[in-house]
Every structure is written in C-alpha cells, then in structure tokens.
C-alpha cells in the first residue's frame, strides 16, 4: 500500500514553541500522495499548529520539512501555495462583503493581458467549481448572505481553485449537512485518483474510519500513534488520543424538572427574498430540562435562537420568562432577564480574538466585578480563574490573547462567558462543533450539571446521535417550522423523517 502512495511531504523533529507553551515536540509526519492522511487528537494537541506550519502560516522553532526529498522552508502562505499546498482552515478566512467568486479567486484572479481582472472568467470558473461541489448559488452573491455551512463550501472551492497537490482539510464537515458531506467525500475520492495528497482533520471519528488511508494521532504536541488505517477502529483511536480519560458524561443525572421557565409563542422572522426563516414557532422549556433543537442546515434553528436574544428586532411573536412577558428589545436586556446565548460562529460572534482570555470571559458580566464606578481587576481575575478551572480550559496564562487557544478551548471560553452572566435559560448553538471527544464529554457534563442546578437549556445540533443522547426532549425544525416534538426514547427514523424539508418529503412520496 505504501508503494502506491509515495511520501510527497515529510516532516521530521518538528518543534514549535509559543510563549508559555510547546505546541509541538519532536513530531514526525508524512503526507502520502493519492491518499487521505488522517490527523487526529484532542483540542490543544497540536493539530492546527502542525497544519499551519505545512501551510506556511507558522514557521518551526526546530525541525525540517522536505518535499520530494528536498528540504524546504516556508516563510509565508504564498511560499506554500507555490509548492502546491492548499488549506481549508477550521475557522473560515473569508471576506463577508465580497462576492463568492471574489472570495474564491482573491489574489489568484485571471487577468486580460496582465492588465485588469477578467471578471467574466472569474464568474465562469466559480460556476464550474460550485457545480463540481454540487452547489447552485450565484457566484455574485455576497458571502455574508450565506450560512456557515455554505461558506465552508466556498472555502473548499477556494482551495480547489488553486490546483493544490497537497490539500489540508481542517474540520471540513463541521458545518455541512449530510448531503454536503457526501459531495465532499466524492470530491476527495476524485482528488485521490488524481494523485493529490490529502490531510484530513476531524473529531468525527466515524468519518476518519470511512475516508482515511493512514492515521497519525497527536497528544499534547507529541505523536502517540501512526499507521495504515487498515484494522483501525474507534476504540484504538480513542486510546491513542486520550488514554484512560475517555468517559461518557452525557447520561442524565435523573433530577426532576421544575416549572415552565421559558415560552415562545408564534415567533416569525422574514428572510431576504421573501418567505419566513422562522415560521410561527412555539416552544417551551422547564427549569432543569435540556431541549434539543434538531434540523438540517437552513431549517431556521439558529435564527430562532437569535430571535430569543433580540438579534432580529423585526421578528414578531411573544416570549415569556418565568411567567412574565419578555419585552426587552435588545441583547443586554435579554441577558439581564437571565438568557444567554453561545453562538454557532464563535470567531465572529462569540470572541474578540485580540483580547485576553480573562477579558473575553468576563465581557458580558463586568458589572459583577464593579465597585461603584470602578472595575476591580482582582475580582475579575479571580472570577475568570474560577471558570477556567471549572471548564478545564487549557491556558498558559489568562492574560494571553484568546486567539492563542485551540478551537475547542476557545469554545469553552464562549460557554464560560455565557455562564458568568448567571443565566436561567442557556441557549447553545452547535456547542460541540469542531470539538474533540474529550472536550465534548466535558461540555456534556457541564450541561448536565447546569440542568441539575435548575437551568433550562435549549441547544441546537445537526448531530443526530448527540441530540438523541443528550436531550430530555427533542423538537425538530424544517422549513422554519417545528415539525415534531419527541421524548428521548423516540426512534431515530422518526426524528430524521421530521427533519426532512417538505419539498423533499413530497418528492419522496
């Protein structure tokens, strides 16, 4: 098998040191051509750092990179692109105010006689790439109008447009629907047949088994396992990733639910171009209850949570909190009434990346650390330290910028910021997106502990297994409407059927 997949890029003794932490320690890693090279590990294990080194975004403190057995040094992303390396980052790096076509070809635009950009050619090439990815949205659409999953597909199209010999996919399916995942896997098969070497990073272990040819496991910046994927199963991956730390924290604590604490009645939100993104949705949740809100991308789940948080003041309908009408029309007012939201897009909506971890954690609850007109930095630091410990956020120092953390630890900071407001109702939008199984277990445990304390939780997820395992009650949305409500013992087939858009159901019938 190795003869059929020669090593195109080799890393030996890779060490990367940041202030206060060693992200990589003597890592050896091979990228085999015409194959999927799986890289797996907990958040903070060093996966993203290693990929940034390969993509020219970061330079090694020690170690060597060779391509086709020749030493290379990447001083910038452009150096890596020139060597045929493309990367799709877990955190999207796109321009929301530019069109889809402009995002895909930015810095790589076809020109007419080297003088000006050939915009017709840009549109034509974009249409071709989108057809290849089985997408039908207009290349001239402003990127900011697309949902996160669609933006992720644009990022993949951008890498394909650079004709990469080596393609790095960092959590490529974290925001994709099931049908989009199947399209991506078909594209991966085509690229393998063309001899492209693919590095695939994902926390969805079933995907790794399905798509991978070779696997390398990182733990705390070191390689703990590397082999052909043949014979590898999920227990092997889990042992290599986290040793004996694997536990299931998603089981119910068996506590009793309290009275109804939150109710939404007849909520509507119009969408651009006509129709309703949220179509007369009514839901309620009791104290101590975890309500799972399941549906496919575009079902209106995220928009519904945003309506609860007053992100869309033009929405209609009524909310009730502990029996009293919720009349506050801004986010601060909703927070003051005991509602907090962990948004889907942590990078843009949940964090200020240049600020310290401490500052991000306390941002929504600074009033708790004020004395008269002054902010008590000592109190603020103590509260931040408490939540860092409570959520087991891996930090070298709370004063480091939050951008220095791994994706999973950034997500914990966003959750901690919400919890520090002391919510009675906690809204979580895809809380485990892009998070490894160890971090998921900690977040599940936190959710269960909060529910046992009487907090009502509404969480959005597109992971069927997650909603089935974690929810005390399941509500399903499709086409902006609630299409079913179920208890925790409902067959998965009924949940999937309820999540199918009406148009698709009609075609199936």
What strand order characterises the main sheet?
6-9-10-3-11-12
Radius of gyration: 23 Å
Mean pLDDT: 87
Q: How many structurally independent domains? A: 3
Structural class assignment:
alpha/beta
Largest β sheet strand count, sense and barrel closure? 6 strands, mixed
Number of helices, counting only DSSP H or I runs of 4 residues or more: 18
**E-strand count:** 24
- In the CATH scheme, the class of the largest domain would be Alpha Beta
Unreliable runs: 503-509
What is the second-level CATH architecture of the largest domain? Answer: 3-Layer(aba) Sandwich
CATH topology of the largest domain: Rossmann fold
Distance between the terminal alpha carbons, to the nearest Å? 45 Å
Provide the CATH superfamily of the largest domain.
P-loop containing nucleotide triphosphate hydrolases
Strand content: 25-35%
Shape: globular
Residues in helix, %: 25-40%
Structural notes for this entry:
By secondary structure, the protein is α/β, with parallel strands linked by helices. The chain folds into 3 domains: 7-245, P-loop containing nucleotide triphosphate hydrolases (Rossmann fold), CATH 3.40.50.300; 260-338 and 423-508, 3-Layer(aba) Sandwich (Rossmann fold), CATH 3.40.50.300; 353-422, no CATH class. It is 33% helix and 27% strand. The protein contains 18 helices and 24 strands. The protein has a 6-stranded mixed beta sheet with strand order 6-9-10-3-11-12, sandwiched between helices. Strand 19 and strand 20 (374-375) form a beta hairpin. The longest helix is centred in the middle third of the chain and has 16 residues, at 178-193. The protein is globular. The two termini are 45 Å apart. Residues 503-509 have low confidence and may be disordered.
